[in-house]
User: Fold these one by one.
Assistant:
Number 1:
Amino acid sequence: MKNLKIAIQKSGRLNEKSVQLLKNCGLDFENYKSSLITTVNNFNLEILFLRDDDIPGYVAQGIADLGIVGENVIDESQEKVIYLQRLGFGRCTLKIGIPKDSDIKDLQDLQGKAIATTYPNILQEFLAEHNLSAEIQQISGSVEIAPGLGLSDAICDIVSTGGTLKSNGLKPFADVRRSEAILIGREGLAENPILCELLQRVQSVLRAKE
Ligand code: PRT
Ligand code: ZN
């Protein structure tokens, strides 16, 4: 049977738990840090190590069959993929943050304001849902320093402990969406026996954790 390919994050917050999940499923593989692909010795699976942002696109195009990635990244990519299983790790919330002394008091106050983010698509959707228009400043990182530099009135970024907001003189203002790591698949994979076996193993690992 043809091997399936699963894409996981190469390094970063989801890498270790993704690798651990696959190992807990009984999969035997070398976790080479330097190679981009590894073959599982005892299962019909190859593992691709990628930047998380590339995972939804690879899966949507069928270059990978499966992927493990944050919901925030899936949503922002706007790629069409199937949610197979919520994985319970990588939990965080995409939030709007504002300066501690901001005069922004309720959502309507965001009207016409400048908001810096690496998530322009999700933010645009959120604003539209609330009939707001704001100036979205798309930047590629270190979003939390934007208000202090005078680049924006607010930010929209991932928050987990809130420590980064706080240390940049910001406070959480509104929740945009929650996120956790998800096992995704390409379309047309539903009856695949390798996937069925893998999914059963993943689900029993998750049940054992409850
Ligand atoms: O290199 P690559 O592109 O693969 O990785 P990356 O740098 O884009 O992502 P990475 O590894 O930082 O995060 C991967 C995924 O983990 C994210 O897409 C989220 O789904 C999830 N996740 C969970 C988080 C966080 N928690 C998190 N705290 N992603 C980012 N953060 C950052 C956030 O951007 C902010 O700068 O941590 C900071 C805030 O953390 P606190 O604890 O100070 O609030
Ligand atoms: Zn990324």
Number 2:
Amino acid sequence: MKDLLGAVIEKNRYWTQYGNVATYIPELSKGNPDVLGISVCDMMGNEYFAGDYDIKFTMQSISKIVSFMCALIDNTSEKLFRKISVSPTAEGFNSIVNLETKNAHKPLNPMINSGAIATVSMVKGITSEDKFNRIYNFMKEITNNPDIKVNDDVYHSEKSTGDRNRALTYYMKSTRIIDDDVEEILDAYFKLCSIEVTCKDIAYMGAMLTNDGMLPCSGKRVLTKEIAKTVKAVMATCGMYDASGEFAINVGLPAKSGVSGGIVAVSPKKMGIGVIGPALDQRGNSIGGVKVLEDLSNRLDLNIF
Ligand code: DON
């Protein structure tokens, strides 16, 4: 497996030159566009890695699946889906247009910014800080890494430039999708996006989903099978934003990307996969990371469709 991963990284590294690092969050523009790495964790907890697998990056939108898991644990799905839909979108991840024109003001799904902010607000906790801590602690458990931390530079950079997210959140407050104080719930959201991980951490999280909600190795159940199924279904349909359809054809795995260049993918009953490649394509997904996943999926016949 290690040799295979090394070959996949080296074959696809040239793709990184065709992408660009995100700049709309100023701190992310410091990302190295040449980086490409992968880590795989199987259901027994065995780990394999290649390339720049040990580079740290912020979770960004990958945190959205963890918030979604916590919101599903803390609410009945009927209650949650009264506030947030699970419809794929053809708009960008921070688009505002659908909030006004579709679905009685409900965010289209939990994988885009509006839906994720609403998801954080549905997590158990009196204050937004309680909600952050609930999700953060769960994240430590499902990455098997108690040392993951908020990157303060990225957090401050997001908070000082996040006016599009403010617009989305004020709009959702006006339509009673959320009741929280806007700045406080955004603070929790920005911090969650700014938690720093490696490919290894997100591959472990993917392996837990592969394992239908049980941690690799210990077998400890952290999600019901039903919740794990819901999360994977929403990843498969909405996790790569408006590129989710193409990704389903070419890779065919439930996955979630983030603008710092990470992607977590889930190969059912086989493995969790984490990739990092900060150079992004036009939809905001890691250009090299998508190619690596496509190549791996073809070589190991992983496409679930
Ligand atoms: O709120 C934002 O815009 C970022 N913190 C997260 C966006 C993101 O990762 C979208 N991913 N492709």
